[in-house]
């Protein structure tokens, strides 16, 4: 056989192989585990492939029930409705078809900044999605029973399940009561895996017979303690079997830690607390919760933390920066390119617990697609004695809010210090918000506890530029600047 013919045959084999590989990896579909309920509200197709659609409990639309879920902590798990979500990986722009169990009269795809060009074709909504997008589809003005679509990029660098430093969970349903990931280890959840966190019978011993809770707090379900630790994959961590207020889902305490790609569902209390840590990267996680105090990401007494490309819909605070007494300052925090849905509390905030100093916090390029909370979308909530300095809220798009901006120093239920602190150098830039009444307030506490040097630049509320007369201020606010 001549060299040219051999070359042509090898080239043909390579082209066919690569073509087959490309077809296989255009849409990566992960199987839904046996025994996991499937959504009856929606079906989804991506690139011609059927995509499993999961169910997640979310806060109810009724405001009284939503607030009751926060305040009636013992019975918090009783107040919920159901939304749907789906995930897959794509290599390029991909055609999506969404079919609902009811007739589609109208629809909305959020965030609006994604500029999705969609239409109804028969009984389906059709549009194109890009890798990395996190979109929410709402049918007939029903914002609660929505469909969240998580289009991941193609997964790279999957760890070897036989590596002794890899804690590997493959497709299927698994359970864990207590898992500690230590130095140089990777926790990996493959697509199609669901890791259910539980409270063991041994841990339940001595619990209050009414609440089911122990007097001393439970350990987190999963703890990342040490250095050079990774959590990655496409699977789901589910805390639905943990009693309300039982335990954190995924706690970070260390250096050089990354969390990427996974879905976190139904936390029983704070979902991802980051405590006394340095150099933490949280990227492309999807978080849905509905129970009392099911905060999203709480960054506490930590430095050099980056939270980006995430989706969070939960009952309590979404992304918040705090400092507890004696645990160290919080500094160099960046929160960017996230899609957020606020149910009751704060969307992006600093506080309430501020016992040690906080500085250099940057919230930027985020979409708040809904904010139905009784608290504030963007806030510094200061009821302790430390200093807060150099906080930026920039390039944020808010599609629904009630209370927009608050810088506040006073006493509150969270107060633990005898004195009050300061808020200095806060910048609001390129904020676009829709809502009513969409208030803005700046309230200091005393002559030694000022809100000082606040800059507003290009703030638009319901299409109109923010004016000085629209800002509620007291006598303990100084140096407020409004720029066009």
UniProtKB/TrEMBL annotation:
One GO process term, biological-process aspect: polysaccharide catabolic process
A GO molecular function held by the record: polygalacturonase activity
This protein's UniProt keywords: Carbohydrate metabolism, Glycoprotein, Glycosidase, Hydrolase, Polysaccharide degradation, Repeat
Stored InterPro entries: Glyco_hydro_28, Pectin_lyas_fold, Pectin_lyase_fold/virulence
Family affiliation: Belongs to the glycosyl hydrolase 28 family.
Function: Pectinolytic enzyme involved in the degradation of xylogalacturonan (xga), a galacturonan backbone heavily substituted with xylose, and which is one important component of the hairy regions of pectin. Activity requires a galacturonic acid backbone substituted with xylose.
This protein's name: Endo-polygalacturonase
């Amino acid at each position: 056989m001549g060299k040219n013919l051999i070359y042509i045959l090898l080239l043909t084999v390579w082209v066919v192989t690569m073509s087959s590989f490309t077809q296989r990896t255009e849409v990566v579909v992960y199987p839904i585990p046996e025994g996991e309920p499937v959504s009856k509200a929606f079906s989804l197709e991506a690139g011609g492939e059927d995509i499993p659609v999961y169910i997640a409990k979310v806060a109810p639309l009724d405001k009284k029930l939503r607030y009751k879920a926060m305040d009636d902590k013992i019975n918090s798990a009783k107040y919920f409705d159901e939304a749907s979500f789906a995930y897959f990986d794509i290599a390029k722009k991909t055609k999506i078809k969404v079919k609902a169990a009811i007739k589609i009269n109208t629809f909305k795809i959020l965030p609006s900044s994604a500029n999705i060009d969609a239409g109804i074709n028969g009984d389906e909504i059709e549009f194109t999605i890009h890798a990395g997008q996190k979109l929410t589809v709402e049918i007939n003005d029903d914002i609660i029973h929505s469909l969240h679509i998580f289009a991941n990029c193609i997964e790279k660098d999957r760890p070897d399940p036989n590596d002794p430093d890899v804690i590997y969970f493959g497709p299927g349903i698994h359970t864990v009561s207590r898992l500690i990931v230590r130095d140089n280890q990777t926790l990996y959840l493959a697509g199609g895996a669901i890791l259910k966190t539980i409270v063991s019978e041994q841990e339940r011993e001595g619990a209050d017979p009414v609440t089911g809770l122990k007097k001393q707090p439970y350990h987190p379900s999963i703890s990342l303690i040490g250095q050079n630790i990774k959590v990655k994959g496409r699977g789901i961590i589910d805390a639905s079997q943990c009693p309300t207020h039982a335990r954190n889902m995924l706690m970070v305490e260390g250096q050089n830690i990354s969390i990427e790609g996974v879905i976190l569902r139904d936390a029983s209390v704070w979902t991802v607390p980051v405590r006394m840590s340095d150099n933490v990267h949280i990227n492309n996680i999807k978080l849905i919760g509905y129970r009392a105090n099911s905060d999203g990401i709480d960054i506490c007494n930590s430095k050099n933390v980056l939270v980006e490309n995430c989706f969070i819909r939960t009952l309590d605070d979404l992304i918040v920066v705090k400092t507890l007494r004696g645990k160290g300052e919080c500094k160099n925090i960046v929160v960017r390119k996230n899609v957020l849905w606020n149910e009751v509390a704060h969307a992006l905030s600093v506080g309430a617990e501020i016992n040690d100093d906080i500085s250099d916090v940057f919230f930027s390029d985020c979409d708040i697609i809904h904010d139905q909370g009784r608290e504030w979308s963007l806030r510094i909530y200061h009821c302790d004695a430390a200093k807060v300095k150099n906080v930026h809220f920039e390039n944020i798009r808010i599609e629904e809010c009630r209370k927009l901006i608050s810088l506040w120093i006073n006493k509150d239920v969270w107060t633990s210090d005898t004195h009050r602190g300061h808020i200095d150098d806060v910048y609001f830039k390129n904020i676009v918000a829709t809502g009513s009444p969409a208030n803005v307030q700046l309230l200091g506490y005393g002559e030694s506890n000022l809100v000082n040097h606040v800059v507003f630049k290009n703030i638009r509320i319901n299409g109109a530029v923010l004016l000085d007369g629209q800002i509620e201020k007291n006598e303990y606010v100084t140096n407020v600047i409004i720029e066009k």
